Amino acid sequence: MTGPPLKGQRLVALCLCGCLLFNFPLLSLFTGSESVWGIPLVYFYVFSAWAVIIALMALIIERKDS
Amino acid sequence: MLTGALIVALSFAYVGLLFAIAYYGDKRADAGRSIIANPYIYTLSLAVYCTSWTFYGSVGRAATSGIGFLPIYLGPTLMAALWWYVLLKLIRISKAHRITSIADFIASRYGKSHLLGGLVTIIAVLGIVPYIALQLKAISVSFSTMLQYPSTVATAPTASLPILQDNTFYIAMLLAAFTILFGTRHLDATERHEGLVAAIAFESVVKLVAFIAVGVFVTWGMFDGFADIFEKAIAKPELSALLLQGGAAGNYTTWASLTVLSMLAIILLPRQFQVAVVENVNERHLNKAIWLFPLYLFAINIFVLPIALGGLMHFPAGTVDADTFVLTLPMVEQKTWLALLAFVGGLSAATGMVIVETIALSTMVCNDLVMPILLRWRFLGLTERRDLSGLLLGIRRSAIVVVLVLGYGYFHLAGEAYALVSIGLISFTAVAQFAPAMIGGLYWKGGTRLGALCGLSAGFLIWLYSLLLPSFAKSGWLPITFLTEGILGIDLLKPQQLFGLSGLDDISHCLFWSMLANVGGYVGMSLWRKPTAAEHSQANLFVDVFRHVAPGSGSRFWRGSATVADLQLLLGRFIGPERANESFAAYARSQGISGVEQITANAVLVHYVESQIAGTIGSASARDMVASVVVEEPLALDEVMAIIDEASQALAYSRQLEQKSRELEAATNELRGANQRLQELDRLKDDFISTVTHELRTPLTSIRAFSEILSDNPQLDQGQRRKFLGIITRESERLTRLINQVLDLAKIESGAADWHPSEVDMREVLDDAVAALSQIYKERQIDLDLQLPAQLPLVMADRDRITQVVLNLLSNAANFCDKPRSQVGIALTQEPGALRVDITDNGIGISADDQAVIFEKFRQVSDTPAGKPRGSGLGLAISRQIIHHFGGRLWVESAPGLGSRFSFTLPLPQGGIVLPELAA
User: Fold this and answer.
1) Architecture of the structural domain at B4-98+131-415
2) Which chain A residues are closer than 8 Å to B246 by Cβ?
3) What is the pLDDT of residue B916?
4) Which CATH architecture best describes the domain B757-907?
5) B73 vs chain A: nearest CA distance in angstroms?
6) Considering its fold, how many domains does chain A have in total?
7) What residue numbers bound the domain in which A31 lies?
8) Chain A closest CA to B252's CA: distance in Å?
9) N or C: which end of chain B has fewer CB atoms below 10 A?
10) Distances from the Cα of B133 to the Cαs of B330, B354, B397, in angstroms?
């Protein structure tokens, strides 16, 4: 784990970002009765945000920094 | 119809397969070809987080609270992003100090305290044993559900059976055997179990595959994809509320506290610490795990809702427990093999958790609870026993059996009681109590043993009072009035509305109060008193672990004396004499020493032995043991502080020192140079004074001599008298001239001379000089040849001074032209940027040695034919000063017998003025 310290900071920022996304009040914006492709909005939102965060984590970790 | 025998056989075959994998993993590890040394196995072993609570319980929770099951997995995802800092530091510290459990970590961090280690162990056991019971219950329920195949009617769990007829009991004992076999094969300072990890990773694959298989079957086999399930569910009024309002997600406080709890649990659960820290092979594996582990959680959660909704829609309300949907849905569709796969998946989720949790707890119980007590009981004579490794293994193995028996006993007693159903989150809240002492201990040097003890105790007591006891009350083991009226009927002490706080669910309520007390106690009491020396040194080793890279850096904080034999004997008692031998040999190699007999008993060795023992009996006991064979001189707090300051400032100091010494060296060189110049100047001054006085004495002597002759001999004739007076006059003139020149030179050198620069035409200067000396030249019959260019620019100079230079050079030339047909030539030429004057004679010439010195003061060409100098010896020195003053150069080219050429240049002003042609 001798990567540049920037990686660690990016991950912390991502964690904070996730804390916001998965909590009141942002979460409450998605509790309507709409649905996306038949899937209720709140489920769709949480799972998509989750997937995006994991993808970003992978990107941050695996990216070869110059 | 599945027979009980088949299911039992399948279960046992599955555990048998685990044995085989673990055995293979251990064999490979012994051969040095690890199968677990890669980030994927590491990630899969971390997935031991997903227990049967995930496998069965998530669906059950989703069936009642919709999305409310998710925070338990979102929290770890968020925490994984922080692993880069937190988990890496935990791993680094644990490897450096041979820490093998959370209890050991906290005990070691706060000055190797037995009391803290014991307290953490008790909290962990109390919090986790019911959690193990929950897994056994899941196995039991899945067992009895499968036995009903294909009927899905709920039946009584096997807990109601006599123990010896309960298959769950045998499974539990089989797990104990497995754990003992692969978890305590031998004592090792690192406490790593490769085979066991391999088996756990395999289990993680099985449970993921099984769950996704069921999910795919429900989503596309029973329904027509995700959209179909959700649309059908929304159409049902009793389900639409669950879906559209987000279920329990509507309560954001619960949501947030569950997220926080699971964030803490993912590093503080004993089993997570075991797989993530203790079993970590290489800290680089952490990198990939940071995103692979959340991906695993994501994958295992995608189908939770479809399965929950499918079950709710398929079974009439209340007929089937939602916790068993994963099993009952394939069953009711008559998918025998899928049902069996799901059963095995659930089994793997449960057994994986039980195995790792048991081993983690047994390490804690042995190292931080039993050993400290046994070692204290002197009448057992343990401190004198030669080989304790057998005893230690025995304690470990007993602890494993005891933990599993406790778990089974709890399950047998609690059965369907509320106390078991809700235990997952209650356990999470229990381990969350470690957070302030752990996380604080990682980053805050000020945390002390007293603070950790107070914080942990306070948090633990509140957890006990507001979460565990109420769960007992709800199970009917305590009077329910305890809940409704508070203890002794005091309203403010109602366990779940402590001090009147209401409106929170029981978990958030407990989390708030326990964390308030815990953090408050930890911080408050840490600040209450100064840390002791031991606390301070440990705090520094932990918090600054990335700075203390060298192994054995802890030995800086130790001073004392010991013998190598004593230490080896001591280590042998705990890990066996043979392994102790190997260990000492390894130490010798690491220190670059040829053999064990060459080892010296220094602080590094003592620290090494202590950390080796710490791996097997915990840091606090290890310290006591080592202290029993070495004579230790305790360090006072200020000494520890001094060592720390020394270490942290040494680098800065040495840099400053280097800088200073460089500066000093430069200054010294400068001084030396200045001194040399001063000495040179001093010498020159002495020379000058002695030369001047000598030069002054010569005319003075002759003046005095002739004056005395005149005075003593009044009868001298007129001719003689006039001759002597003439000599006195000439010598006086010479004296005056000499003094004038000395003064002149002194003025020029000191910069005090008067200069009157003006535009000078060099042709006029040379004409004037030649005119002034023409009489002397004529007398001596020297030809003078003057060559002037037709036109040339003016120079800026002091006309009189330049004339002085030319006169000096011309009279020198005349003085050194002794032979007949002497010729002196004067040439004025223009060079780029300067005018040049050459004065050439065909006199005796000057040797190379003399050329080097004639421009110095009082240095004259010594071997003049006349035998005595003819000038003051200052003329050329003054001339050179004058030419230098105007930015020019004065030099000589000569060879003995071939005459000399004195030349000087004067720089032209830029854009110099060109004079018109002079009349010839």
Assistant:
1) Up-down Bundle (1.20)
2) 31, 42
3) 44
4) 2-Layer Sandwich (3.30)
5) 10
6) 1
7) 5-62
8) 6
9) C
10) 26, 9, 19
